[in-house]
Design a protein that fits this description.
Number of strands of chain A: 21
Distance between the termini of chain A: 30 Å
Helix content of chain B: 25-40%
CATH class of the largest domain in chain A: Alpha Beta
CATH topology of chain B: Rossmann fold
Number of helices of chain A: 17
CATH architecture of the largest domain in chain A: 3-Layer(aba) Sandwich
Structural class of chain B: alpha/beta
Number of domains of chain B: 1
Shape of chain A: globular
Oligomer: heterodimer
CATH architecture of chain B: 3-Layer(aba) Sandwich
Distance between the termini of chain B: 56 Å
Strand order of the largest sheet of chain B: 2-1-3-4-6-5-8-7
Strand content of chain B: 15-25%
Largest sheet of chain A: 8 strands, mixed
Largest sheet of chain B: 8 strands, mixed
Strand order of the largest sheet of chain A: 6-5-4-1-3-2-14-7
CATH topology of the largest domain in chain A: Rossmann fold
Shape of chain B: globular
């Protein structure tokens, strides 16, 4: 294979057949080979049945998206076969479960299910083991090595899984064995989802407590941190609803804990009143918004960027808001840390914008925990304490209980001590104080990287969030020379980085072009929009065609 | 012990809230003598006439939003379990806007104290019916009289798992203070309902002075406590139920104190490296 040539493995079947797990194991195989890899799972909102697929693309050097055209497909049932087999590469291989896919099918039939029935209980769960075995064989692993991987990755019922893997391996025709030669890469990386990266990034900056009510696609942050309560010494709390989530986080911040909350659009809508509370009491809290295809309940397990305007306009009233949209899994790590720092330094709420694609897709990343920032803050030294002391910067030092000083955080407009006031001059003083924080925030943002610019000097594409990954891969796929401009900060919007741009091709996952509207409003950029809003992330090859047409 | 602030008191003359404020001050002094000083006694308040108590007390805390201050103090407590937390809420706060929070705080036995200023009317928004108003209550939103029956919050919270449930009356300041002290000292969820007349919109002084009766003995069975809470005449004041049960934060993460025991940057880097290397 050519350098950086992409190999794609796709496994499809019903929920409950280990489809996603097979994708994860494939990721881990490629990652251990030092290759860059990207996994996207597609699943409907159900627990058993339906149609799931997991697609993993890998390259020796760089990759930032999955591809829908696959080299190797393993399809468990008729529905998966009908859905995917036409998207196999001309040089590719389709392996299907011959117990369910009928006569006349193209490709290689293996009786995966009847073979699995020899290893009860739960033969369905073993289907995924079979799919991984096919991959191992196709990329040239000898049967013993394949067995070892199965034993390591499927520890429950280990021996039966290994026996099943061996049986499947023996049924694979010789022309498939070692058909794909994958070069080893040089990456020393681990595979993380965007949600895991955001959780770990915030933790690296000092996160103590995470509060959340389950809502796809944010839920895996809660699961991840709850699973690591002991080894990371972090606390994950799942209260009665999102309103409790947000208010507990504010209360915990009052007591000095670094807190974060997370949900999807509906949950953030419920938290919105508390977002303003955080603005008023000057509580440092990070809100993670992981969007699904909306509006309302929408399409819970599919992706979209239709919450952009909602994300940048959280909360009623006037106060500084910080809205950050990382454009890759790795960036989710560092930006979650940076946002925790900013909300603590400026004592105001911030939103980390993710979406289904970034939250749940898995990417090989090379994270250096030393490189993430630490969320330090300005604290009160000594003397009489005034919670809302008016300072040069608008930032009042923090003090936490227990303390003999009086610490009052107040949702009503207040004086410097935090006592309620409706006096005209107090109202003005506190508005001015919060405004000063905003101007200091602007100054600070000018000293850090707020916009990524890739490959300058060519026709300009503007994009943000998860779509950045799709665009960068599309440029590689289509061999296109283009500049990619990706604002990471959406509010305050880094207008100072946009001088010299007056037109751009905008790529976003929204039906109304909200990002293009934001660019026009903030940076006077005219756009030609490539939009997608069917819940599926862009396929790099299709996107490359669209970009070529537009550029 | 100075518990006053410079804030101007704007409650109506004769408001039941004065009795509660004085009871709280007395309780704070008693608690301080027992080793729970105001350095670690935290408060929050909801929104309404009752909430102004936040400005009138030299006690640290967070003036929350309507219905949510139960969650606010839970957050404080979970972050730093060394703190003792009280939230002052109205009947609209606790039983209307924030009913879910108060029920779940009881259900999980969060170690917080909820003090409900129950005047059975929305005072600050000029006299509408609340979840505890009697049927037929005439207010701005129900000029012909409320058509809803009132909730029985004490019975409800006992059923939800409240481990300390009490009622007191703002007209009996020493009783308010004693009850508050017991509630704060109770490890676990404690609810103190304070019968509080609103001189402007729901003046119940005469009614309560006639009907209120001291509950001599705390029932030791939950069913008996619920039965006692259902009695409307006389209106018992006292502790209806008190039981020791494991508290939420300790069940979830033992003796850890998330705010105080927060790990250093170096320690976090080490743990992340470990975690990433096994993946």
């Amino acid at each position: 294979m050519k350098k950086n040539e992409v190999f794609t493995y796709l496994v499809g079947g019903r929920a409950g057949e280990g489809v996603k797990k097979a994708g994860t194991v494939a990721m881990s195989i490629f990652t251990r080979m030092g290759r860059a890899s990207f996994e996207m799972d597609d699943y409907p909102s159900l627990i058993r049945g339906g149609h799931n697929f997991s697609v993993v693309s890998t390259a020796a050097d760089t990759i930032t998206s999955h591809y829908m055209e696959a080299d190797l497909m393993v399809l468990h049932d008729e529905r998966s076969y009908l859905e995917h087999q036409s998207h196999v590469k001309p040089t590719g291989v389709v392996v299907y479960n011959s117990d369910e896919v009928g006569e006349g099918a193209r490709g290689i039939g293996i009786p995966m299910k009847s073979e699995a029935k020899k290893y009860p209980p739960n033969p369905e769960l073993r289907m995924g083991v079979g799919s991984v075995t096919v991959l191992a064989a196709a990329i040239g692993m000898p049967v013993n090595q394949a067995e070892e991987i199965i034993k390591k990755e499927y520890p429950r019922d280990r021996e039966k899984n290994a026996d099943y893997a061996r049986a499947i391996y023996e049924l694979i025709p010789s022309e498939v064995l070692g058909k794909f030669h994958l070069e080893k890469g040089t990456h020393q990386s681990s595979a993380l989802t965007g949600n895991q990266a955001a959780a770990l990034g915030a933790y690296s900056a000092g996160l103590d407590m995470y509060f959340a009510y389950p809502m796809t696609p944010s839920t895996s942050i809660l699961h991840f941190l709850a699973a690591h309560m002991s080894d990371l010494q972090v606390v994950a709390i799942h209260p009665e609803n999102e309103i409790a989530v947000a208010n507990m986080a504010v209360g915990a911040a009052f007591a000095g804990a670094k807190t974060m909350v997370g949900s999807s659009g509906g949950g953030l809508a419920l938290m919105e009143e508390t977002y303003s509370l955080a603005g008023m009491v000057e509580a440092p809290v990070v809100f993670v918004l992981s969007s699904r295809s909306g509006p309302s309940t929408g399409v819970p397990t599919y992706t979209d960027q239709g919450d952009l305007e909602f994300a940048v306009n959280q909360g009623h009233g006037e106060f500084p808001r910080i809205v950050v949209a990382p454009g890759s899994v790795e960036e989710a790590y560092y930006k979650a840390a940076e946002l925790l720092l900013l909300v603590w330094r400026f004592q105001t709420p911030g939103t980390l914008v993710l979406d289904r694609h970034l939250s749940e897709s898995s990417h090989t990343v090379n994270i250096d925990p030393e490189k993430a920032v630490w969320a330090d803050f300005i604290s009160h030294d000594s003397g009489e304490y005034r919670r809302y002391e008016v300072t040069e910067t608008g930032i009042s030092p923090l003090l936490f209980p227990p303390s003999s000083e009086l610490i009052k955080w107040n949702s009503y407009e207040h004086d410097e001590f935090g006592i309620t006031s409706d006096k005209a001059e107090k109202i003005v003083a506190m508005h001015d104080k919060r405004k000063k924080k905003l101007s200091k925030l602007h100054e600070y943002l000018k000293t850090i990287k707020t916009v990524n610019v890739y490959n300058p000097g060519h026709p300009v594409i503007m994009t943000y969030g998860s779509t950045t990954m799709s665009v960068l891969e599309a440029l590689r796929a289509g061999d296109i020379d283009a500049t990619v401009v990706q604002p990471v900060y959406l509010r305050p919007f880094p207008v100072w980085e946009f001088t010299g741009y007056d037109r751009a091709v905008v790529v976003e996952q929204s039906s109304t072009g909200q990002f293009a509207t934001l660019l026009k409003e903030k940076a006077q950029v005219d756009s030609l929009v490539i939009a997608k809003y069917d819940g599926r992330p862009f396929d790099p090859q299709n996107l490359a065609l669209a970009i070529k047409e537009a550029v | 012990m100075e518990l006053r602030t410079y804030a101007e008191n704007t409650w109506c003359p004769g408001c039941g809230n004065f009795g509660i404020l004085n009871g709280v001050k007395r309780a704070a002094e008693m608690l301080s003598e027992k080793g729970i000083g105001t350095e670690r006694l935290m408060m929050s308040a909801g929104i309404g006439c009752h909430g102004k108590i936040f400005d009138y007390l030299r006690i640290s805390g967070l003036y929350s939003i309507h219905g949510r201050s139960m969650a606010t103090v839970e957050g404080m407590k979970f972050a730093n379990p060394d703190l003792k937390v009280i939230t002052f809420v109205g009947d609209g706060d606790a039983y209307g806007e924030g009913l879910a929070h108060v029920l779940f705080a009881a259900k999980r036995n969060a170690d917080i104290t909820v003090v409900v200023h129950d005047n059975k009317v929305y005072g600050l928004t000029t006299g509408q019916f609340t979840p505890t108003s009697t049927k037929g209550f005439k207010g701005g939103s129900t000029p012909e009289g409320s058509v809803e029956d009132p909730l029985n919050p004490l019975a409800l919270l006992l059923e939800a798992g409240g481990t300390f449930v009490a009622r007191t009356y703002s007209g009996k300041i020493p009783h308010v203070a004693d009850t508050l002290v017991r509630a704060v000292e109770h490890e676990g969820f404690s609810l103190v309902e304070v019968l509080q007349p609103c001189v402007t919109y729901n003046d119940t002084y005469r009614l309560y002075n006639e009907k209120v009766k001291l509950l001599e003995e705390t029932p030791d069975k939950l069913g008996e406590a619920i039965d006692t809470a259902r009695i409307q005449d006389p209106l018992y004041i006292g502790v209806f139920y008190e039981v020791k049960k494991p508290v939420y934060h300790r069940e979830l993460y033992g003796e850890r104190n998330p705010a105080k025991d927060s790990l250093s940057r170096e320690e976090r880097v080490r743990r992340i490296r470990n975690l990433l290397s096994v993946r």
